[in-house]
Specification:
Layout: H1 8-71, H2 75-78, E1 88-94, E2 97-103, H3 120-200
Antiparallel strand pairs: 1-2
Helix pairs in contact: 1-3
């Protein structure tokens, strides 16, 4: 409870502040619910993508193993594949939370090595690892988004708790205290006036 001077002006000001605090709590509560709902949907999506990555990884390594068996180790062939640096990250805002959005040129994959000394097992492994890379980008975006949303939920929850458990009860107590003080002052003023009137009429 604050040490507010019990005046009608202070009472009006604290009542306004209390109304704003209640509105703020309602907004925080709605924001938290929206963020949690958004986050839960992304968690389900991330789980699906992780399962897809696990399946495609197994298939890609099986194809690579067959390519290694039939061609010998493929490290020299793999060196012919250029480094992919075409990914860019942009941020977008969801309820005031900065969310990453990964963009990539999604043109058809091109075979980057010669075909004369390779076979279809290597081609299959190459295409599957491209699929793994794409899924990994998606998973990274989802997981980063989930982390940022979770952090925003925690911050929003703390602010909502502060409003609900500290600010609103404190201002409510202030209003009660000031109201009681003003009522007591009104009673004292009334009693004083009554005494003065009685003296005047004597």
């Amino acid at each position: 409870m604050s040490a507010a001077i019990p005046t009608k002006g202070n009472l009006i000001a604290i009542k306004r502040s209390l109304e704003l605090a209640r509105q703020g709590y309602d907004l925080m509560d709605k924001k938290r619910n929206i963020l949690v709902h958004e986050m839960m949907g992304l968690i389900d999506r991330a789980s699906e993508v992780q399962q897809q990555i696990d399946v495609v990884f197994r298939e890609a390594y099986a194809s690579l193993q067959m390519a290694n068996i039939t061609l010998g180790f493929c490290d020299q062939i793999a060196a012919a594949v250029p480094v992919d640096d075409s990914i860019s990250v942009r941020l977008r805002s969801v309820m005031g939370v900065e969310i990453p959005s990964i963009t990539k040129d999604e043109s058809q994959p091109q075979i980057e090595y010669g075909l004369a000394e390779t076979n279809s097992q290597l081609d299959d492994a190459y295409l599957k690892f491209i699929r793994v890379k794409k899924l990994s980008r998606t998973l990274a975006e989802l997981e980063n988004t989930i982390y940022r949303l979770a952090y925003a939920v925690i911050k929003t929850q703390k602010r909502a708790n502060a409003l609900q458990n500290i600010i609103i009860p404190g201002q409510t107590a202030d209003i009660k205290s000031i109201t009681e003080a003003l009522e007591e002052k009104d009673r004292e003023d009334y009693a004083r006036l009554k005494v003065i009137k009685d003296k005047i009429h004597q």
